[in-house]
Amino acid sequence: MIARLRGRIEHVAGDRLLVDIGAISLTVQVPVTLALRLQPGQSVALFTHLHVREQEMALFGFAEEEELQLFQLLISVDGIGPRLALNILSSLSPDSLRLAVANEEPALLTRVPGIGIKTARKILFQLKDRLA
Q1: Judging by DSSP bridges, how do beta strands 57-62 and 16-20 pair with one another?
Q2: Over the range 64-74, which residues count as b (16 or more CB within 10 Å of their CB) and which as e?
Q3: Does residue 106 contact residue 120 with C-beta atoms inside 8 Å?
Q4: 122-127, long-range: CB within 8 Å, 24+ apart, which pairs?
């Protein structure tokens, strides 16, 4: 598994980075908030999650290990895939997400595009004991 990578950013497009890591370049999906802070030519170090499906592999990257851990918790929730988890982390800071779970505030989660009230409640229910 690819746990971390360091390299130079070649291209930024939306929530995707093209990162030159030496002999190859990798496409890495990142929270939009991170992508907005990065520029081509800049060096970057990312904590990563390699998501493997039947006919697809996708690499997700995060500036902080805490974001990676939250991403992995989110994708463990029934019905939450990596794209939706990334969307949540693009819309909410780790502290906001923790606060929403701790205070059981589904309204905060429903602000995220793609999350309705039922999904928000499911996230809160499944994460309340696992997210301190």
Answers
A1: unpaired
A2: eeebbebbebb
A3: yes
A4: 122/77, 122/78, 122/79, 123/74, 123/77, 123/80, 124/100, 126/76, 126/77, 126/78, 127/73, 127/74, 127/77, 127/101
Residue type, 59: L
Q: Identity (one letter) of the amino acid at 65?
A: E
pLDDT tens digit sequence for 120-131? 999 999 999 888
Is the pTM here over 0.70, yes or no?
yes
DSSP state, 23?
A: S
Pairing of strands 25-29, 16-20: antiparallel
Q: Dump pLDDT digits (tens) for 39-66.
A: 999 999 999 999 998 888 999 999 999 9
- Are the C-beta atoms of 40 and 30 separated by less than 8 Å? no
Q: Which amino acid is at 103?
A: N
For residue 11, the one-letter residue type is: H
